[in-house]
From TrEMBL:
Pfam families: ABC_tran (PF00005). It comes from Allosaccharopolyspora coralli. GO terms for molecular function: ATP binding; ATP hydrolysis activity. InterPro entries: AAA+_ATPase, ABC_transporter-like_ATP-bd, ABC_transporter-like_CS, P-loop_NTPase. Residues 1-23 are annotated as: Disordered. This is ATP-binding cassette domain-containing protein. Residues 1-12 have a biased composition (Basic and acidic residues). Residues 28-259 form the ABC transporter domain. PANTHER family: ABC TRANSPORTER, ATP-BINDING PROTEIN.
């Protein structure tokens, strides 16, 4: 993946360049990844590229193919066709070699209901090749503290709320330092405080240089935590690239705060400048005009300008634009 936004559209006239084939560039990568169940296509020829050190949000509604793609990345589901590379190793052929370097929470955690949270994590830690018997208790305690479950660590798992179960699954993924952490809907069932904690953990992982892949159907979560975005819709990857580039792809706009919105819109339109009312402000499309010219026209028309700032396309608007032709 390059710094520029890469957009892949089914049936588009132009196709973005294929990412450079360099293992050092990507923590995870797929080529032509496809999964079918009979006549149903769950994932259609996905070329996903996850740069090292990035926080990549796989965004899409339920049923868009996010979880199936993640399961194929981790070797949990065998692709119908295509290639998967994880930390430089082919998957599922070399999954046993690479998965100890990967932490994952996929489709909700599964633990023994009659064991406590701590006992469940101790069992998980016993299977970690990088932990010894003497270091396991400390690793478990640190993981529980990191996700805010220390006080509930000795309660039975069956008595945990959905949010607590999700936290325990996250703790299992963070028992040892990982090069790549994959989180499938990590804020599912969490209250606002829990969601804030997950954001903090993702930020800490990113700061430490860990690559994080997060799937979500919540646009606000992706926008708040991710550096890169991959948008999936109906099994296809319709766009991927840096979040900032994706948000700028809708075209430049100017938002003008004024006490006379209607008068300002009319004055601009009289001068053939595309303008409209937007949430109590004037929104101007800067396709054929620049910002100083817009301000000058408003001043000449006697329209008071309190503030003018560059408009920023929201992820919700971008997602709607990218998927509207795919419905």
């Amino acid at each position: 993946m390059t710094d520029a936004l890469r957009v892949d559209r089914v049936g588009a006239e132009e196709t973005a360049p294929t990412p450079v084939d360099t293992s050092d560039t990507f923590a995870a990568r797929t080529r032509g990844l496809r999964k079918t169940y009979g006549s149903t296509v769950a994932v259609a020829d996905v070329d996903l590229a996850v740069p090292h050190g990035a926080v990549v949000g796989v965004l899409g509604p339920n049923g868009s193919g996010k979880t199936t793609t993640i399961r194929m990345l981790l070797g949990l589901t065998r692709p119908t066709s295509g290639e998967v590379e994880l930390l430089g190793c082919e998957v599922p052929e070399h999954a046993d070699r690479v998965l100890p370097r990967v932490g994952a929470l996929v489709e909700g955690p599964g633990f023994h209901p009659f064991l406590s949270g701590r006992q469940n994590l101790l069992r998980c830690a016993a299977m970690e090749p990088h932990l010894t018997r003497s270091t396991i208790p400390g690793a478990v305690g640190d993981a529980l503290d990191r996700v805010g479950l220390s006080r509930a660590a000795d309660r039975r798992f069956r008595g945990y709320s959905l949010g607590m179960k999700q936290r325990l699954g996250l703790a299992a993924a963070l028992l040892v330092p990982r090069e790549l952490v994959v989180l499938d809907e990590p804020t599912n069932g969490l209250d606002p405080a829990g969601t804030k904690e997950v954001r903090r953990i993702i930020a800490e992982l990113h700061g430490a240089g860990t690559t994080v892949l997060v799937s979500s159907h919540l646009l606000s979560e992706v926008e708040a935590t991710c550096t890169h975005v991959a948008v999936m819709h109906q099994g296809s990857l319709v766009a991927q690239g840096e979040l900032a580039g994706l948000l700028e792809s809708g075209g430049p706009t100017l938002l003008v705060s004024t006490p006379d919105v209607d008068g300002g819109v009319e004055a601009l339109r009289d001068n053939r400048i595309a303008a409209s009312e937007h949430q109590g402000e004037i929104r101007v499309e800067l396709t054929d005009v620049d910002a100083p010219e817009v301000i000058a026209e408003l001043v000449r028309a006697g329209i008071g300008v309190h503030e003018a700032r560059r408009g920023r396309t929201g992820l919700e608007d971008v997602f709607a634009r990218l998927t509207e032709d795919e419905s």
